[in-house]
Amino acid sequence: MLETAVAQGGIELTGVTKRFVTPAGDAMTAIRDVNLVVEPGQFCAVVGPTGCGKSTTLTLAAGLEMPSAGTVRVSGQIVDSITRGVSFVFQSDALLPWKPVLENVALGPIFRGTKRRDAHAEARDWLNTVGLSGFANHYPHQLSGGMRKRVSLAAALINKPSILLMDEPFSALDVQTRAIMSNELLSLWEKTKPSVLFVTHDLEEAIALADRVVVMTAGPATVKAVYDINLPRPRGAVQEIRFDSHFLELYQQIWESLREEVRQAYSRTSEVANNMEATTAV
Ligand SMILES: Nc1ncnc2c1ncn2[C@@H]1O[C@H](COP(=O)(O)OP(=O)(O)OP(=O)(O)O)[C@@H](O)[C@H]1O
């Protein structure tokens, strides 16, 4: 497993712990002793209770944060600065509001030194791929949430990333748009096959999209269990695969594992809230 992760685009976290300093000056451990492998071209989803450290895991893979202990390797190289070949898609769109759609999509190639005309031509191809060829001159605020998300995907994929890091990319969308975007993401991923690390709160979404689902424990997070999702590909419409009997079995099995962590995280936050109330009442 270790050898395969060394190939282009493989991600490997070994014994990774990340501590932060809180605003009060205390040390807090966000993730603890995390071991995680994403094989090149694999779609890996990470689920876990809120606040357990999923986004922290992504920022470590991106090289935006450094581990306090352990190592992060991408394509076999230890990550010690911003990782090359990575595109990030967040919950918010991260588009520049003062630039039209075409310019937003062309930004990556322009930053890398591609001539403006060539970058625009490439951006037009990507807008065509995500079904927005008629919106090149619109500004982000003139688009719907789903359309902005498509622009974000085009802006990420135009960079031909070997790694795509996605932090709850569709959570702000309504259910129907979310399903459409999931299908679009799968068909785009099947064309270019970057390694994907996809953080979500939605277990159904994780199983419908991924080759592998990683369940993290209540914070400080460590990896609790890893499930291989052996549903056939291409998956077809994510709305339909949810009714497949094997999908339901996988859901049941993974939810069993996740439920306990969600319960623990919830009771911890309730304890903190109760303690705060008690302190305030004194
Ligand atoms: N830069 C930082 N400084 C201090 N604490 C941080 C920092 N980044 C994250 N944390 C803390 O680390 C913990 C994990 O945060 P993280 O955002 O990784 O969790 P998450 O699982 O992605 O949460 P959610 O599911 O709610 O999005 C949280 O307690 C958070 O407050």
Write up what this structure looks like.
It holds the Pfam family ABC_tran. This protein is an alpha/beta fold and 282 residues long. It contains nine helices and ten strands. The strands form two sheets. The protein has a six-stranded mixed beta sheet with strand order 6-7-8-3-9-10, with helices on both faces. Strands 2-1-4-5 form a four-stranded antiparallel beta sheet. A hairpin with a 5-residue loop joins strand 1 and strand 2. The termini are far apart. The structure holds adenosine-5'-triphosphate (ATP).
Give structural attributes.
9 helices; disordered N terminus; Rossmann fold; alpha/beta; 4-stranded antiparallel β-sheet; binds adenosine-5'-triphosphate
Short description:
The chain is an alpha/beta fold. It contains 9 helices and 10 strands.
Helix content: 40-55%
Radius of gyration: 20 Å
Percentage of residues in DSSP E strands: 15-25%
Strand order of the largest sheet: 6-7-8-3-9-10
What is bound: which ligands? adenosine-5'-triphosphate
Q: End-to-end distance, in Å?
A: 55 Å
Could you give the order of the helices and strands? HEEEHEEEHHHEHEHEEHH
Number of helix segments?
Answer: 9
Number of strands: 10
Low-pLDDT runs of 5+ residues are: 1-6
Q: Globular, elongated, flat, extended or rod-shaped: what is the shape?
A: globular
CATH domain fold name of the domain at 1-85 and 199-258 = Rossmann fold
Q: In CATH, what is the class of the domain at 1-85 and 199-258? A: Alpha Beta
How would you classify the helix and strand content by structural class?
alpha/beta
Which assembly state applies to the chains in this document?
single chain
> Biggest sheet, in brief?
6 strands, mixed
Q: Quick check: average pLDDT?
A: 90
Pfam family, one: ABC_tran
InterPro entries: AAA+_ATPase (IPR003593), ABC_transporter-like_ATP-bd (IPR003439), ABC_transporter-like_CS (IPR017871), ABC_transporter_ATP-bind (IPR050166), P-loop_NTPase (IPR027417)
Domain ABC transporter: 11-243
Organism: Acidihalobacter ferrooxydans
